[in-house]
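STRUCTURE:
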């Protein structure tokens, strides 16, 4: 989506489309979980494109229906936010977007706290859930016979991605941003997107 960039023209998807002289459609959503990305891939394959590029996210992101905006919204479980509040200080907690009158009751708060503890307590479970969503994305592309290239925004998940597909490029925006911050000082900047576009283009050239 290019969060923090001055223009959508600076995103790697736009830059790649320009190099290929092709039309493109971007389904990206800020803060998407891997399950929201799966929904986006389900929409994308129906368009029967020549190529789908998928940027994968953090395994601790989940999705909840946002009654304020009437669409699915990504969020990070409360315990992960609290442990990493230095990095996630601007994230909204699920309680803020549930839009139900029971959210101040102890039983409701306890239920969400327990769900967060369950999800956060076992790293292996969180990664297996992530791998399940990514695997279905890959399966959809293969079933529709669509070329697909993947990148993992978070470097610790790259080995997991490599086990699932050979179609990937080794660039991680969560690392790149420290050398090239966007204007919001939170996301990767234009140089990182240009680098990703060039790597994607090189990968496509190798397939010819």
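SEQUENCE:
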């Amino acid at each position: 989506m290019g969060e923090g960039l001055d223009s959508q023209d600076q995103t790697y998807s736009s830059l790649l489309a320009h190099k290929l002289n092709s039309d493109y459609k971007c389904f990206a959503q800020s803060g998407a979980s891997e399950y929201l990305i799966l929904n986006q891939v389900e929409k994308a394959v129906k368009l029967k494109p020549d190529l789908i590029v998928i940027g994968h996210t953090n395994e601790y992101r989940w999705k909840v229906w946002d009654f304020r905006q009437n669409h699915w919204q990504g969020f990070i479980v409360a315990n992960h936010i609290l442990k990493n509040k230095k990095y996630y200080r601007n994230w909204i907690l699920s309680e803020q977007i549930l839009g139900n009158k029971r959210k101040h009751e102890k039983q409701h708060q306890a239920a969400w706290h327990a769900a967060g503890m369950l999800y956060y307590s076992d790293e292996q479970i969180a990664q297996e859930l992530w791998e399940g969503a990514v695997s279905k994305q890959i399966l959809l592309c293969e079933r529709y016979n669509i070329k697909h290239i993947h990148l993992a925004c978070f470097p610790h998940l790259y080995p997991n991605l490599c086990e699932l597909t050979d179609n990937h490029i080794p660039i991680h925006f969560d690392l790149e941003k420290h050398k090239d911050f966007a204007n919001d000082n939170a996301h990767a900047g234009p140089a990182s997107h240009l680098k990703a576009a060039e790597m994607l283009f090189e990968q496509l050239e190798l397939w010819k």
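REMARK: The first strand starts at residue 51 and ends at 56.
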